[in-house]
Design goal:
This protein is α/β, with parallel strands linked by helices. The chain folds into two domains: 92 residues; 285 residues, no CATH class. Helices cover 51% and strands 7% of the residues. It contains 18 helices and five strands. The radius of gyration is 23 Å and the shape is globular. It starts with a helix and ends with a helix. 42% of the residues are buried.
Length: 427
């Protein structure tokens, strides 16, 4: 009956809100309003993308969230995924034009998360960035790898549909580009080269799927090296690697501490010290207070710079702290975006939520989109079961459990105090 009420009373095909709002790669297909987090998105692009490619360049950047009750759910993953999608659309040409960069500036971006099943180290994470690059964001869009093939075909004046001619050109470009970027290195692995020469994303994905978890952990860097070479062969100057949930590595109880420290150190070895990558391959990490506390001693021991604390004068230029939802107008836009996605005729208004609910929802979520969306799901379900014509603020206050404030039993410890304690402790 609740579904019938949604349709008849509110014009909704079904409840559009996610019951658990944890963003991931499939979030590309979730309802999205590009203006909702425009301020956070623009700061991310300017500080962590544009300034990273300007001379002398920067290898590492940090996307933070900090909340009053919790530090997650502010939209960091969505910001990364949307930025990657926008950058790959035209190899960053629109961004270069907007910020007055050289006309020759080109960039691409890939994303991977340490939460992905089977990822226990940096090499496996890098392998998954290739999978991301080979997948299409939407069926009608082209993947990053397909865009690189098309760019190489254009450069060589070869018809993209002529697979044999294009494969020969890609082989030549891979060989010459790899020799230029990594002189003296072993030749690229035959299995990944075979996939890249297929000039067919389905065949490439099949090749990648056949690589075992052990093979990804052992040889992920070699596969990534080949993928990166393809990107550079297409004339793309900068590749951004967006790394989500790195704290899962730092807190993994089944991985020895020495191994976790070594894995963090590999970021420095790859991005900052390998000449083929340095200055052209950039990593951006998501962070929050709990993650930073788990990673701080590894970062310091492995000498990764700049530091990632927003309060650190050296780290501040390389960090962005997202604000999340800060106004009732943003709450309304978020509700409308999801509700209109399941209306036969979008209305542009947040019915059945009354305007009085926007402030209540904002206060409850503390700016966290990941908190507001599942609450909206539960509220809509309860209101439909109660056959309500609209949803009032009083209904939310009476039917949703109160948000617990942080315990005041002990005085809070500042981020810098925590950092100092970690740095001064024995490993």
């Amino acid at each position: 009956m609740s579904l019938q009420h949604m349709r008849e009373a509110w014009g909704l095909d079904y409840n559009p809100f996610p019951a658990g709002a944890i963003a991931g790669e499939d979030s590309n297909n979730a309802p999205y309003d590009p203006d909702l987090l425009a301020s956070d998105q623009n700061l991310f692009i300017e500080r962590l993308i544009v300034k990273a490619v300007l001379p002398p360049g920067r290898e590492f950047g940090y996307l933070w969230s900090q909340g009053r009750r919790d530090d997650t759910g502010f939209g960091k993953t969505t910001i990364m995924l949307r930025a990657a999608r926008d950058i790959n659309t035209d190899f960053g040409a629109a961004i270069a034009s907007q910020y007055g960069l050289s006309d020759s500036t080109s960039m691409a971006a890939v994303w991977a998360s340490m939460k992905t099943t089977g990822v226990t180290g940096i090499y496996a994470l890098l392998f998954n960035t290739i999978v991301y690059g080979a997948k299409r964001p939407e069926p009608e869009e082209t993947s990053l790898v397909e865009k690189c093939w098309a760019k190489i075909a254009e450069q060589g004046n070869v018809p993209a549909e002529n697979r044999d001619a294009l494969a020969a050109l890609v082989r030549e470009k891979l060989s010459s580009t790899h020799h230029h970027l990594f002189p003296g290195y072993p030749a690229l692995r035959d299995d990944i080269v075979e996939g890249l020469l297929s000039c067919d994303s389905a065949q490439l994905l099949t090749k990648l799927e056949q690589v075992t978890l052990a093979g990804r952990s052992r040889n992920g860097l070699s596969y990534f090296e080949a993928f990166y070479t393809l990107v550079r062969a297409a004339g793309v100057e900068h590749l951004f690697v967006f790394v989500d949930q790195l704290e899962d590595l730092a807190t993994a109880k089944n991985v020895p501490r020495a191994t976790r420290q070594r894995e963090v150190g590999r970021f420095r070895d790859i991005f900052a010290e390998t000449s083929g990558f340095r200055g052209h391959c950039h990593a951006v990490f998501t962070l929050h207070n709990r993650a930073a506390q788990a990673l701080a001693d590894f970062w310091q021991l492995e000498r990764l710079n700049p530091p990632f604390w927003p309060q650190d004068p050296m780290g501040r230029p390389a960090t962005v702290v997202v604000a999340g939802l800060t106004s009732i107008q943003q709450v309304e836009r978020l509700l409308v975006t999801y509700l209109d996605s399941v209306r036969t005729s979008p209305t542009g208004i947040a019915e059945p939520f009354e305007p009085s609910t926007f402030q209540v929802l904002l206060d409850r979520c503390d700016g966290r989109i990941g908190q507001l969306l599942p609450e909206a799901y539960a509220i809509l379900e309860q209101a439909a079961e109660s056959q309500l014509p609209t949803i009032s603020s009083q209904f939310i206050l009476e039917n949703m459990p109160a948000q617990m404030a942080p315990s005041s039993a002990s005085s809070p410890t500042s981020d810098q105090d925590t950092l100092n304690a970690l740095w001064n402790s024995n490993p």
